[in-house]
Amino acid sequence: MKSNSHTENKNIPLKKIEKCLKGTRFNEIKRIEETGSTNADLVLRASEAPDDIVLVTDHQTDGKGRLGRVWESPKGLNLLCSFLLTPKWAKDKNPLVTSALALGVVDYLSTIGVSALVKWPNDIVIPERDNKKISGILAEQVEGEVERIVVGIGFNISWPTSSQEGPLDAISLKMLGATFDRWTVLAGIIENFEKQLKLLEELNGAALLRRSLIAHSATIGNQVRVETANNIIVGFAKDLTEEGFLVVNDGNQDLQVNAGDVVNLRKKI
Ligand code: BT5
């Protein structure tokens, strides 16, 4: 891990990190002290805010995970932000925005010496710590005259500080011995997210992301148990499709899963 750590400076004006927007599709970062959910805020604003923007908050009172689950984070300790995007790619690539952000986060973490993987479909986990979860991503499509995508990320920086604190299996940069401030992490994630979105825009973008996701997957190559909305599949996680589906072989056939929760049972030797 790199030694040039930073401690949080509550007075850092957003202006300082606005520099990191240069060359990206985002032309504004808004910061609010408290809100229900940054995703919900941007979904509401999607029709009236024509630009691609970043919304960051110090605290969420109704932080959302998938399927009505809760994203927990005490005030001021972690990164909580959402991106409002206008897709510049074919509609069938929209689900890959989650992958683009996940890969951007993994790439950023590698620049600060933290090795992380993507647990399908939306978690960033730390393989050296039993695949504990450092970050979760939630993407929502907003239909309208112009289609928009809101993608939010919760990233644990200074909380939890131990495995007794916070959700089961959560980990933070602090628990890994790194004390980076939220703004440094946000700037790094924006830069790397933009690189992945540019790849997604390429004609073969879905293939490029698939290759990278497989190379950075905490899921592929494992015996898994996948809970979908109406099914439980136990089998070998063998592949990802260019649409971002997980391919599981249950011993009889290959099954494609587009959404679900995965538990790793054991790694294939
Ligand atoms: C997610 O859902 O992981 C998506 C989380 C997205 C949160 C961001 S914060 C900014 C933006 N605004 C929002 O309202 N949401 C987004 P899911 O895969 O369903 O995982 C949720 C589960 O993760 C919970 O049920 C807990 O088990 C666990 N969890 C909750 N808070 C956590 C944390 N801080 N660290 C690690 N795990 C957590």
Describe the structure.
This protein has helices spanning 14-18, 38-45, 96-111, 182-201, 205-215; strands spanning 26-35, 52-60, 79-85, 117-119, 123-126, 132-142, 148-155, 222-227, 232-240, 246-249, 254-257, 261-267. The protein contains 5 helices and 12 strands. The chain is of the alpha+beta class and 269 residues long. The model is unreliable at 1-9 (pLDDT under 50). α3 (96-111) crosses α5 (205-215). The strands form 2 sheets. The chain has a 7-stranded mixed sheet, with helices on both faces. Bound molecules: biotinyl-5-AMP (BT5). Biotinyl-5-AMP is lined by residues 37-39, 60, 63-67, 69, 71-73, 80-82, 122-123, 133, 136-138, 152-154, 156, 167, 170. The site of biotinyl-5-AMP has 28 residues, from α2, β3, β6 and β7.
Quick structural gist:
It contains 5 helices and 12 strands. The chain has 269 residues and is an alpha+beta fold. Helix 3 packs across helix 4 and helix 3 crosses helix 5.
Secondary structure elements and pairings:
Elements: H1 14-18, E1 26-35, H2 38-45, E2 52-60, E3 79-85, H3 96-111, E4 117-119, E5 123-126, E6 132-142, E7 148-155, H4 182-201, H5 205-215, E8 222-227, E9 232-240, E10 246-249, E11 254-257, E12 261-267
Parallel strand pairs: 1-2
Antiparallel strand pairs: 2-3, 3-7, 4-5, 5-6, 6-7, 8-9, 8-12, 9-10, 10-11
The structure holds biotinyl-5-AMP.
Largest sheet: 7 strands, mixed
- Low-pLDDT residue intervals, each spanning 5 or more residues: 1-9
The secondary-structure element order is: HEHEEHEEEEHHEEEEE
Classification by helices and strands:
alpha+beta
Please estimate the helix content.
10-25%
Average pLDDT, to the nearest integer?
93
Distinct ligands, ions and cofactors found in the model: biotinyl-5-AMP
Count up the helices: 5
Query: How many E-type strands?
Result: 12
Q: Beta-strand level of the residues, as a percent range?
A: 25-35%
Lateral strand order in the biggest sheet:
1-2-3-7-6-5-4
How far from one another are the termini? 29 Å
